[in-house]
Specification:
It comes from Salisediminibacterium beveridgei. Its EC number is 2.1.3.3. The chain is an alpha/beta fold. It has two domains: about 140 residues, 3-Layer(aba) Sandwich (Rossmann fold), CATH 3.40.50; about 160 residues, 3-Layer(aba) Sandwich (Rossmann fold). It has a five-stranded parallel β-sheet with strand order 7-6-5-8-9. A four-stranded parallel β-sheet has the order 2-1-3-4, with helices on both faces. Strand 3, helix 4 and strand 4 form a beta-alpha-beta unit. Helix 2 crosses helix 12, helix 3 packs across helix 4 and helix 5 crosses helix 12. The chain is globular, with a radius of gyration of 19 Å. The structure holds phosphoric acid mono(formamide)ester and norvaline (NVA). Norvaline binds next to helix 6.
Amino acid sequence: MTTPKHFLTMLDYDKEMIQALLEDAKQLKKELKEGTPHPHLKGKTLAMIFEKSSTRTRVSFEVGMLQLGGHALFLSSNEIQLGRGEPISDTAKVLSGYVDGIMIRTFGHSRIEELADQATIPVINGLTNEHHPCQVMADLLTIQEQKGTLEGLTASYIGDGFNNVAHSLIQGLCLMGMHVKVASPEGYEPDPAIMHEAEVIAGEQGGSLAFSHSAQTAIQDSDVVITDVWASMGNEAEKEQRLNDFQGFQVNQELTEHAKDDYIFLHCLPAHRGEEVTSEIIDGSHSVVFEEAENRLHAQKAILKKLL
Ligand code: CP
Ligand code: NVA
């Protein structure tokens, strides 16, 4: 596979390319910790468009560009003409004349596809309603660091199956040859098209993909336990309904008794403590959520270095 121009979903890249990016992320992390400068993107500029809130994505991309010798522009959609109805296609063409890459956090995935189609520069997905691939690059890096490998490990995702993090995890973990088990309440299952495609990929890579409506079934003997909020950005109006529908899907002490003794716990953050996960788990000895958050920086620097 030649390197695609953009990074919109985990399946834009093949397993070897993901592994190479993870190796580069580890190298950049090592150099940063040693204090070795690595200005691979000297003079390059990244436009960062945010149509939704962010802490990690905004800060890690901005700091990452700075550490690579480049510059990042924070563009809140409320403050640029995009928020007043300028077409995304015109925005893509205009920005292509000024900057070297665009990172965008937006709503429907078709918006980023249109942006990528119309831009002459690389576009990176900083989260859409359907995908969050930069998060999953950090998750893969974290799992590999903690467990020494990805292939053959069992990971369970418990919670909202029809969201960005779940979809990118299903794609990314299956691509890397892991055994992936997903549990969601009825009505919150992952996109069937994403499940079917990932199941085939998992088979090719020596992994597997299974779905269940039981959190206990999914978490059984897992090396890695992952969850995400029950109501994502944009689902706020359904919050009360979802709190009710997700009963039995909280990652807590009782549920994690069924995972392996040395399981690790991941959450993309922000977390709603007491809803999808208890404070006992997120602050407990199995949790690697802050290592995971830090790894957003290192994983994204490898992506920026490759694409810009
Ligand atoms: N995990 C993540 O994307 O966090 P932010 O919403 O803070 O960017
Ligand atoms: N699924 C969450 C992820 C936040 C980083 C959301 O979309 O709000």
